[in-house]
Write a structure and sequence with these properties.
Elements: H1 27-41, E1 48-49, H2 61-71, H3 85-99, E2 109-112, H4 115-126, E3 132-137, H5 142-149, E4 153-158, H6 174-179, E5 180-186, H7 198-211, E6 214-218, H8 239-242, E7 243-248, E8 261-265, H9 267-278, H10 286-296, H11 300-321, E9 335-339, E10 343-344, E11 347-348, H12 352-363, E12 365-366, E13 368-370, E14 376-380, H13 388-405, E15 407-408
Parallel strand pairs: 1-12, 3-4, 3-5, 5-6, 6-7
Antiparallel strand pairs: 2-8, 7-8, 9-14, 10-11, 10-15, 13-14
Helix pairs in contact: 1-12, 2-10, 3-10, 4-5, 4-9, 11-13
The chain binds pyridoxal-5'-phosphate.
Length: 412
């Protein structure tokens, strides 16, 4: 085949004519390749997979039953546009039950095909060339990537132990504050596991009002809160005047592949995002929305899921600490984010990426490295284990291999 003429037609946002020519591979793709290689090279060694950030369980049987029933009804076959009222009403019931937040389902709630797609659409509603989105790092990059797609800039707010994994809003230069239109937060935070406090959210609201910035709080992991009851941004007085919150059924309700979530908060922002969304998609399949209603109306599901991941995290923290790590129970999420060792088994590891590659290649332990704010590893407790006994077997094996590795942290 001759060389195609169209590389020069690719948009600059994906690399222009150089698209596909770089050697850089996306972090998660690198992990997948390493995983495939070690499974082929060492089929005898069980893979300890702390890399996947996806729930290991199916959605509840009661929820799947509703999907099956509703999929057979002809009235559910069409475009759902900006969503069915029954879903918005179920969201309003959930928000009142879990957070004590009252919402008008008609104007203050809209569904989305997962929070990822809503985060991708968000900059379309607010960002013009030269505008700034403030985002915490490490973090979920989607809103930032789309900010750049629209000609905007991302100002990174590092999260580290020195600021207790909360962004230092006072450190933002005046010129950036002037151009900033959007502050994207994510608490409980992925990957650090930090949860927000009411005091922090109150400070965010003050900052947003003073600088006229819209706040979007990504609450995708909110049902996994361990150090305090789940906290919604909208619980804090004034939040609705400055922003919206994004929620997801992916994590708390084991519905990661179903693609359903919601946005709630200020009605004008909800409307603007709905208008943008109308130009991207035609709504989630109505039977999925109806099954999500059944999920939202069952308070047991997220509480049961939360209890499972809490138990797994507690076991992992204890096991890793016995191997020399200095871990603490995360405040929320199903991730443990911990400092990566500087050396192990007589080798030096300048980055978490290098250590994570060593862990998978030599010991079949899969983790996700983060080097954006100091070398850290993310362990996800979404590994497959059918019961608690199987979890314990997996933990014993993790501890055995990690002790053999002898991680060294060399002081602070
Ligand atoms: C912080 C954060 N936000 C959003 C998402 C996307 O979730 P959803 O499945 O609702 O698109 C994820 C998924 O991993 C996430 O970790």
């Amino acid at each position: 085949m001759s060389d195609p003429y169209f590389p020069q037609l690719f948009a600059k946002r994906i690399g222009g004519a150089n698209y596909g020519k770089g050697a850089d591979i996306y972090k998660f793709e690198k992990i997948k390749r390493a995983k495939r290689k070690v499974l082929a090279d060492h089929p005898e060694r069980k893979l300890l997979d702390f890399g996947i950030g996806e729930n290991d369980e199916m959605a509840a049987a009661s929820v799947r039953r509703v999907l099956a029933e509703e999929a057979g009804r002809p009235e559910n076959r069409g475009y759902a546009d900006n969503g069915i009222l029954a879903f918005k009403e179920a969201v309003a019931r959930l928000m009142r039950r879990e957070f004590g937040v009252a919402l008008d389902p008609a104007t203050e709630v809209n569904h989305c095909i997962g929070t990822k797609s809503m985060l991708a659409m968000l900059p379309a509603a607010l960002i013009d060339p030269g505008d700034v989105t403030l985002m915490t790092v490490p973090g979920y990059p989607v809103a930032g990537n789309h900010t750049r797609f629209y000609g905007g800039e991302v100002f990174r707010l590092p999260l580290g132990p020195e600021n207790d994994f909360l962004p230092d809003l006072d450190s933002i230069p005046a010129e950036i504050r002037r151009r900033a239109k959007l502050l994207v937060l994510n608490y409980p935070n992925s990957p650090t596991g930090k949860t927000a406090t009411r005091a922090f959210f109150a400070r965010v609201i003050e900052f947003a009002l003073a600088n006229q910035i819209v706040v979007v709080q990504d609450a995708a992991h909110v049902m996994f809160s361990y150090d305090a009851p789940p906290l919604s941004f909208l619980q804090v007085p004034g939040a609705r005047e400055v922003g919206v919150e994004f929620h997801s059924l992916s994590k708390g309700w084991n519905m990661i592949g179903w693609r359903i979530g919601w946005v709630c908060g200020h009605p004008l922002l909800v409307r603007a995002l709905g208008d943008v969304k109308d130009n991207f998609d035609s709504g989630q399949f109505i039977p999925i929305q109806k099954a999500a209603v059944a999920a939202l109306d069952d308070p047991e599901i997220p509480h049961r899921t939360c209890a499972k991941y809490r138990r797994r995290l507690e076991k992992l923290v204890a096991a890793l600490n016995r191997c020399g790590f200095d871990c603490r129970m995360p405040g929320g999420t199903y991730f443990l984010y911990t400092r990566s060792p500087k050396a192990a088994a007589g080798q030096q590891f300048p980055t978490a990426d290098a250590f994570s590659q060593y862990l998978i290649a030599e010991h079949s332990i899969c983790t996700v490295p983060w080097d954006d704010a100091g070398p850290h590893l993310r362990f996800s407790v979404t590994y497959e284990a059918p019961d608690e006994a199987a979890e314990d077997v997996l933990m014993v094996e993790t501890e055995r291999r990690m002790k053999e590795i002898r991680p060294e942290f060399g002081g602070a």
